[in-house]
Amino acid sequence: MMLKKLVLTGFILFLQLNFVAYSEAKANSSAGPIASSHVLDNTFTQANTRTTLPDSSPVQANNSPKIALTFVQTETSRTQTATLTAPTDSSSTKSDLHQLFDDYSRFNGNPDGFTEVEDTTLSETDKEGPVFPDVSIEALQKNNDQLTRFLERLHAIDESGLSTQDNISYRLFGRMLMDRIEAFELGDHLVPLDGWWDFHASFAETPVRSNFSSVKDYEKYIERLNGYGDHTDQYITRLRSAIEVGWVRPKVILEKYIPTIEALVTTTEESLFSRPFDQFPESIPDSAQTRLREMGIRAVSDVVIPAYDRFARFMRDEYYVAAPEEIAISNLNGGKEYYEHLVRHYTTLQITPDEVHKIGLDEVARIRREMDEAIAATDFDGNFEEFVHFLRTDPRFYAKTEEELLQYTSLILKRMDGELPRLFKRLPRNPYGIREIPDHIAPRMTTAYYSGGAADGTRAGYYYVNTYDLASRPFYEVEALSFHEAVPGHHLQLTLQQELGELPRFRQQSGFTVFVEGWALYSERLGIELGFYQDPYSNFGRLTYEMWRALRLVVDTGMHYKGWSRQEAIDFMAANSALTILNITNEVDRYIFWPGQSLAYKTGEIKIRQLRKVAEDELGDKFDVREFHDVVLRNGSITLEVLEEEVNFWINTVSAAE
Asked: C or N: which end of the chain has fewer Cβ atoms within 10 Å?
């Protein structure tokens, strides 16, 4: 196994070195107005003319070389038109590239979710292929081998003649492959639980994410129910392997996590998996209804509920017992290198945890000054801590019922819907709705989240609002939160991406967290331009949310890389924000459970804001915010390097126009 890893990683390095040598020979040395732009003390700079190989090794245990994860900026990406239809590539090269993309789309190669944006094109009952993928370690190794073969095929393609869009696809695809290969080599498959959308939680959404309009739909659903037991057992086996090598998540987060599994161990009658059999469409004959109900209830009773019980007992009796008290992922064997990889993965930058930590501290200081100014705009007489206590305890800021909170949220978004054409040329066709977060996960869940709709428009997207503990859900946060999760944030960006039919499927249905979350955080600020945040409390709420994301840069790196305790992280967040203690505690536990992911939000937002400022400064009266947003969104979710190049090209094009 160790020899296989050495050979595989060395092979990737060989491919990358050849790719770098080839690309450097033809890289364009010219630069546009932001080709060498820096953000916050140069720590976000991207190499714009070539790829460099880092010196240190991410897998020190086996002394294998580090995989370079940045792609080059080629002459093609600088000089061809930035339109979506620049057909300058040779037919054979284009055919080879798109055949590779098609082969990848047919490859069910990462059962844990190859991408960071869920494929929501089809409902659960419409999806073809295996009911559940093979998630065993043996299967994951085979999948990783296949990803390596895809990478080899990609590097055999000469991208110099590709169109702009195909060149972008080439680079994004390669980045995605190399990221996944490195993650596997570092042990990512041993930590399949992130506390957010794990296999058991996502399966619990199957009843509401499935179509039930035909006998075939019900039969497919029942097939999934019957397959869930074996699927669960594969995860249990995999987690036992993690226990053997000491890659177990800390006790403190498991104490709240395990009860969410136990909550799904119910009677058959109470189980949410039984609900689709309570009522059938009139188009299904009575005889078929009886048959389907008997089969479905039996699957829930004999397979699904026992599987949840089995998983809960394993987590409580084996996994929790083996769990460490220490919270840092870097404390695991090889964990330091793994966390460094996660920082690069989630930011798409060659940046260190220490650099991210410093950026976070600088942002916290800046936003804190703006928060003090917002407090001064109120009639409150007191310091920051007293003002925060006032916000946390005054009943005027909190809904009395769940319905009141949901209604207020709906009114805010109805207003925003009407304002969107002022900032956007294109709006998504698929609508969105608002739902409460399910009761079984609400106590440990963060304030809200977004779940995407179907690309064919048969299912809307949904903005899920947490109505648990209303004393932790203040009105003054609703605007910023809603703009982030719904519009102009996640729903607008992700749905437009789904509707980019001219892009390869992997780009329509995949994404880089730093872009997706960076855009959503940037969207919160757009409310200022559209007349929201009119009272000083809601503006303070907006700043609280921006501070929240800046604090993540500090506490995530602090806990996982710099030796911070959980309590130190909670105290630091409490001292610098108006977030309630419940929200802060849940957030800190999320960062412990899901290392690195929280770094993406502020990193991406900083880059988008920086690019907009440069565009405004360079273009002056020629700057059009609707055009700028179109440039940012028209390629779907991309790395920050590619985003910078696209905006740079647009600036040059507009500047040159008479």
From this structure: C
